[in-house]
Design a protein that fits this description.
Elements (H helix, E strand, L loop, with lengths): L3 H9 L4 E2 L1 H10 L2 H10 L6 E2 L7 E3 L6 E3 L3 E7 L11 H18 L7 H6 L8 E12 L5 E6 L4 E6 L6 H5 L6 E8 L6 E7 L17 E5 L11 H13 L4 E5 L21 H13 L6 E5 L27 E12 L2 E5 L4 H8 L9 H10 L28 E4 L6 E5 L2 E5 L8 H5 L8 E6 L5 E5 L2
Parallel strand pairs: 1-2, 8-10, 11-12, 12-13, 13-14, 15-16, 16-18
Antiparallel strand pairs: 3-4, 5-14, 6-7, 6-9, 7-8, 9-10, 11-19, 14-15, 17-18, 19-20
The protein binds 2'-deoxyadenosine-5'-monophosphate, fe (iii) ion (FE) and zinc ion (ZN).
């Protein structure tokens, strides 16, 4: 067996610490090459190598054994992970957890000082320094600058981003409750902070995505809306035929499986299936048409039967009794590893918030919103707008580790982009334009599936219209 000291030394030589569980796993495996492979594949900003850095591995519930599945693994958001909110004080702990964890990504690039100390130090009227906190409020001034209230555990201060400074376009996209660092100087009266530089947690520039060594194909879809009179069953059947003849191994569905009941006023007038159990039964029968060799990973969305507050629990067994056994129900969000390629699945409700808060943002172009999630390292930063958040003691909406792929839906408009090596996919819908969308001027792009090659991370759009 490899001894623990040797293993720890190997990681320390690359300036990384290693979690005791990883040490235990490696000593049992007794394979020195495995250490090299892990070191080669962890993100460049890794401080502590943990179980989640080992492709295709997770720790089982009692923490004692390791289940190795070379294929498909739920790294975060496995069914049963999320809990109800027990105490109103959880809310305070939630934001402290967010500040601490996202703050780590900023601390490595800037050394922030407490806002209280900044306000007392008159030398910061000449000398630049950095603060770090949560955005409380962000608004335009009458002169077109951006005024942002930043709060840390000690105090808060208004920060002015001048419209003619280069960082202004980034400042325009600031939304409440995201964690930022700001470098700047204090005003003469000590009451305002003039921003020179904005830091977001962000994806490290050195991030190198993991690629599978073995061939493998995954398909990404979302927003099926079974039960709606605008669900496109013809297109779905063409998709089901195609996937049955393909060599696809994984199908990922990022929420809104069914249209649900009572999701919006007068919905019953647009439903062909008016019973929630029947909607899931039909969805289950559609899953039975997909070959059992394909692993189907299913997370919920805002039209599904589970609580709306995120993280949303997995669809309970009460509704999935006729689903085939190759279906894996996960939470929203969830992080799944496909042959080591990590896909962060998130339905995308927060895109509604980004669109209402960020000047110039629109439903036609959700890709910048997905980049925005990665820059903020957070799937739904703003609390108390359209996205309900279950503020538990830990923030499960933080993006950590950096995934290879970010998969969202919700907007019903397909879009693909790439940001610092992370592939961003919004997978569209299987529902034609609804009356509501017509009113909102939203033109969906239905019946597309995104085919992802796990060896190259190249994607291809399949159109089933
Ligand atoms: O979302 C379907 C589409 O409708 C998607 O583009 C988001 C948009 N949408 C959903 N709810 C709202 C509200 N309240 N205002 C504006 N736009 C919205 P789905 O989740 O499938 O209903
Ligand atoms: Fe939807
Ligand atoms: Zn939705």
């Amino acid at each position: 067996m490899l001894d623990a000291a040797t293993i720890v030394q190997r990681f320390l030589a690359t300036k990384m610490q290693v979690h005791p569980e990883v040490v235990r796993y490696l000593s049992e495996k007794d394979d020195p090459n495995l250490i090299d492979r892990i070191i080669a594949n962890v993100p460049g900003d890794t401080i502590v190598v943990s179980i989640q850095h080992i492709p295709g591995l997770h720790q089982d519930r009692d923490g004692s054994r390791f289940l190795a599945d070379p294929q498909c693994d739920v790294v975060q958001g496995a069914a049963g992970t999320t809990r109800g909110i027990a105490h109103i004080t959880d809310y305070t702990k939630y934001f402290r957890d967010r500040y601490q964890r996202l703050g780590e990504y900023i601390r490595v690039r800037a050394a922030p000082m407490p806002i209280e100390a900044l306000k007392k130090g008159s030398r910061y009227r000449q000398e630049a320094c950095t603060i770090m906190g949560l955005v409380m409020e962000a608004k335009a001034t009458t002169n077109g600058h951006r005024l942002v209230e930043v709060e840390d555990p000690t105090s808060s201060i208004p920060v002015l981003f001048h419209k003619e400074r280069p960082q202004f376009s980034d400042a325009e996209t600031l939304v409440p409750d995201e964690v930022i660092g700001v470098k700047g100087t204090l005003s003469a009266d000590g009451r305002l902070f003039f921003a020179e530089q904005l830091f977001r947690p962000d994806i490290p520039l050195t991030h190198a995505p993991f690629k599978s060594g073995d061939p493998g194909q995954a398909v990404l879809i979302s927003d099926i809306h079974v039960g709606s009179d605008t669900f496109l069953d013809g297109a779905w059947n063409r998709f089901a035929d195609w996937i049955s003849d393909s060599d696809v191994s994984y199908l990922l569905i990022a929420g809104d499986l069914v249209d649900g009941i009572g999701v919006y006023p007068n919905q019953e007038q647009e439903l062909t299936i008016k019973n929630i159990y029947e909607q899931y039964e039909v969805f289950g029968s559609m899953m039975r048409d997909i070959p059992s060799r394909i692993k189907v990973i299913i997370s919920p969305g805002n039209h599904d039967v589970v609580r709306a507050a995120e993280p949303q629990p997995a669809i309970p067994s009460e509704f999935t009794s006729n689903f085939p056994s190759n279906c894996i129900m996960v939470e929203n969000p969830a992080l799944v590893s496909l042959q080591g390629v990590r896909v962060q699945m998130y339905h995308g409700r927060s895109i509604d918030d980004f669109i209402s808060l960020v000047p110039g943002a629109s439903y036609e172009n959700a890709a910048p919103m997905m980049m925005g999630m990665l820059q903020r390292r957070h799937l739904a930063p703003t609390y108390g707008k359209r996205t309900p958040i279950a503020a538990g003691t830990e923030d499960h909406l933080i993006i950590d580790p950096v995934p290879e792929v970010l998969h969202t839906g919700h907007v019903h408009i397909m879009g693909i982009t790439e940001y610092r090596g992370v592939l961003c996919v919004n997978s569209g819908t299987w529902q034609a334009q609804t009356a509501f969308q017509k009113q909102m001027n939203i033109t969906p792009t239905p019946a597309r599936a995104i085919l992802l090659d796990l060896q190259t991370l190249n994607s291809r759009v399949m159109d089933f219209n």
